[in-house]
C-alpha cells in the first residue's frame, strides 16, 4: 500500500530540520527550487528563467509546477543567501516561492587503509570464469585464499549454475562517474539510463585527478557487471546485467535537487540504484535525505519499475564502532536496503558501523591487508585488488538483487527485502570484539546487530525467487504515542511503554511486521552518551541507538528522528512495546525524551502462505510454522 502523504509528512519532513547539524556553517549553492503558481510548460519556465538571468535545468521529479534553476553568476558555494537573486524570482507574478538550495556534505564510503538455507540441491558443476582476476575474487568464490574462510562468499556460482546471470536488469551507480569505455564494462553499459548531474550532460565520465580520487564509481560498477571470460580484470556478480552511470557526487557540496533528480532518474529503465556514500562518518553527524530526495525515493518504490518499485541499496557506513548507522537517514530508511560488510574470515571490518536498520551483509576487504580487498575494474582500463569499505559491499548486494530480478522480473521492492531476510545466512560471521551475538527473534529468525540477517546467498535467493509469490499489501499503523516529557535519569534507565492493538479493526491493521520505527524527539547535555533500546511484545530487544563517543551535541538532540529496526521482522506487533533510554557515561548527564511515536509497518495477511516449503529446516519453514501457529490462536 503506497504511503499516504500525511504519514510521509509526519515521519520525514522533520529530517531536513534535524539534519542541518552536519555542516559547521551554512553553505548556499547557486541552485534554486522554483515553485510556480500553476503548471508550466518547459518552454514557459525557460523564458522566465532567462528573463531573470537564470538557467532552467528542468522539472523536479516530473512536476510541471516545480523547476530547478541555476544562476551561474553566483558562486557554487557561498556562506550567505543571495537575497537579490531570490527577490528577482519572488517578485515574478507567476512564481509562488523560490528557495536557494543549501549545500551539504556527502562522502564516498571507501575504506582508508589502516595505518594498518541452501535451497539449491544437486546443481550441475559450474566452470570457473577465466578472467585473470577471478582467483582474487574471494567474495565470489572463497577457497580459503589469503587466509580466508572457505565457502564464506556470496554463493554466486549456485545462481550462475541455475542459468541466471543478471540479464535484462539495470543497476544505476550513483557516484562520481563510471568509466564506460573500460573494456570490462563498455558492453554492459546502458547509456539511455545514464546521466551526469554534476555537469548536466548525458556523459557521466569521471573527472580526472592525479590521485585517482574519482575511481570510486567505476570500481563499484565492475563489482556488479564486469564482463565474463574476456581476459580483462575479474567478473561481476551479475555479469550479464547492465550498469548505468549517474554522476552526482563529484562536487564540493551536495544539494537536495541533485540528490532527488539522481534518485528519480529514469525509474522505468533503472531497476536498482546503488549508493556507496552518505553523510560524514565522523561519529557526530545526524543527517539524512531532505524533502525532495525523500519524495524521489518514495515515488521510486511506489511507481518505479512500472509499479513494482525501484530497489535502493545503501552502504551502511564506515564510521566504525564510534558511529551508529541509525543516525544516517539514508541507510536507516525503510525504503532502502542497508548493507554492512564482513572480511574474508567472517569478522566485521574495523570500519563497520552497527545498527538495527541493517538488513544483511556482503563483503569488503580481506583480512587486514589492503591488497586482499575487492578485485574489480579501475579507471582507464585498469584493474584493482584494493577496493574496500562498505562502498564495496553495497554493489555486491546490488548484483545479487539483479540476479534475483532476472530469475523473477515480477518481484517488488518489498519482495527483495523479504527474500533477503529469508535467504541470508549466518555462515561464519562474527563480531571480532564479542559485543554483538547472534539472537533469535520471536518467530525464529536469527539476526545480529552488526550483520542484520546474515550474508546474502545468491544461489538461495535465485532459487526462492523463481517460485516466489508476491507478499500481501503493506500497511502503516501509528500504534501509539507518548507526548509527555520524561526525564532521563543520570544513573539508571527511563522506561516508557506503549500498549497497542496494532490498528486492529481499521484499514491500516498490521499483524505481521516488516519495519518498525520509533520516532523520537529528545535533548541531552551530551547526545552521544545516550543509548536507546526498543523491546517488542514478543521480547526482541533492539538497540536503536548506541553510544557515539565523538558526538558532543548539547543543542540539537533528535527532532522526530525515525529510529528503525528490522530485528522484529515477521513478529506480531500487538501488545506492549518498551522504549528504554539511558546514559552510557562516566560523567553525570541530563536529558529529556520529549516525544515518542511508534510506527508499525507490515501486512494484515501472513506473507508466505502460498510458498511451498522444500527444506523443513529453512528460515521460510520456521517462519511459516510460527505464523500458522499464530493464526490458530
From TrEMBL:
Gene Ontology biological process terms from the UniProt entry: larval behavior; peptide hormone processing
EC number(s) recorded for this UniProt protein: 3.4.21.94
Reactions the enzyme catalyzes: Release of protein hormones and neuropeptides from their precursors, generally by hydrolysis of -Lys-Arg-|- bonds
Domain P/Homo B: 470-606
InterPro entries linked to this entry: Galactose-bd-like_sf (IPR008979), Kexin/furin (IPR034182), P_dom (IPR002884), Peptidase_S8/S53_dom (IPR000209), Peptidase_S8/S53_dom_sf (IPR036852), Peptidase_S8_Asp-AS (IPR023827), Peptidase_S8_His-AS (IPR022398), Peptidase_S8_Ser-AS (IPR023828)
Record's signal peptide: 1-24
Domain of life: Eukaryota
Record keywords: Cleavage on pair of basic residues, Disulfide bond, Glycoprotein, Hydrolase, Protease, Secreted, Serine protease, Signal, Zymogen
Broad EC category: hydrolase
Single GO MF annotation: serine-type endopeptidase activity
Keyword match Signal: yes
Active site positions: 175 (charge relay system), 216 (charge relay system), 391 (charge relay system)
Localization: Secreted
Family from the record: Belongs to the peptidase S8 family. Furin subfamily.
Protein name, UniProt field: Neuroendocrine convertase 2
Species this chain originates from: Phaedon cochleariae (Mustard beetle)
